[in-house]
Design goal:
Elements (H helix, E strand, L loop, with lengths): L3 H38 L17 E3 L19 E2 L2 E5 L4 E8 L5 E11 L2 E7 L7 E7 L9 E13 L5 E14 L1
C-alpha cells in the first residue's frame, strides 16, 4: 500500500528527473547554436584570382574621352573618383554612392563596401566588374544585411584586375568612408 510519504518521494524524484532532463536538452541546444555560430564566423571570403565575367548590372558607361595612363612594361595604372559618403536605403535595400573607374585607368575594379565595427568587418555590398569608363551610383545590399538607422564607419575595398588578362593585380586599396543608414 502506498503511503503519502512514498507518493511524495516518487513525485519529488520525477520532478528532479524532469528538471535534469530539461536542463540537458537546453544545454544541447545551446551547444548546437554555438557550433553553428563558430562555423559561420570561420567562413572565409576568398578573392578570385581572375575577374568576374560580368560587368556590374548597376554600372553606367560614362562619356569620358581621357587617354589611357602611361605605364611601363609589366606595370599598371589606376585612377578612381569617388565620394566618401554612402547612403543606405533599408526599405529599397540599396546604397547610393559615387564611385568611378575613369577610362584613363588600365585596370578593372571590383568594389566591396564594408562597415567597420570594432575589429570586425561586415560586407554590405559587393559589385561585379567595373571596367575603365564605368561608374556606380547605386548598388544592391548583400543578402541578409540588416542595419539600424544611424551612421557607421566604413571602407571601400577595391580589388584590381588586369583589363587584358583578367588576372588579379598585386595592389588593392582601402578608402575610408562614412555610411549613413536611413
Amino acid at each position: 500500500m502506498k503511503t503519502k510519504e512514498n507518493v511524495e518521494k516518487k513525485d519529488k524524484k520525477e520532478r528532479k528527473f524532469k528538471l535534469i532532463h530539461a536542463i540537458l536538452i537546453l544545454l544541447i541546444a545551446l551547444c548546437i547554436v554555438l557550433i553553428v555560430c563558430l562555423l559561420k564566423k570561420n567562413e572565409a571570403t576568398l578573392t578570385p584570382d581572375y575577374a568576374p565575367g560580368t560587368i556590374d548590372v548597376n554600372a553606367i558607361k560614362e562619356k569620358d574621352d581621357g587617354e589611357k595612363m602611361h605605364v611601363s612594361n609589366g606595370g599598371g595604372a589606376v585612377s578612381i573618383s569617388y565620394s566618401n559618403i554612402v547612403e543606405v536605403d533599408t526599405k529599397k535595400e540599396t546604397l547610393k554612392l559615387y564611385f568611378k573607374n575613369p577610362s584613363s585607368s588600365r585596370e578593372s575594379i571590383v568594389l566591396d563596401v564594408i562597415i567597420i565595427s570594432g575589429d570586425k568587418e561586415y560586407s554590405i555590398a559587393k559589385s561585379d566588374l567595373l571596367p575603365p569608363g564605368y561608374a556606380l551610383y547605386n548598388m544592391d545590399l548583400n543578402d541578409d544585411v540588416k542595419l539600424n538607422k544611424g551612421g557607421y564607419k566604413g571602407i571601400f575595398r577595391t580589388t584590381y584586375y588586369n583589363e587584358e588578362t583578367g588576372e588579379r593585380e598585386i595592389v588593392n586599396s582601402e578608402i575610408e568612408i562614412s555610411i549613413e543608414v536611413k
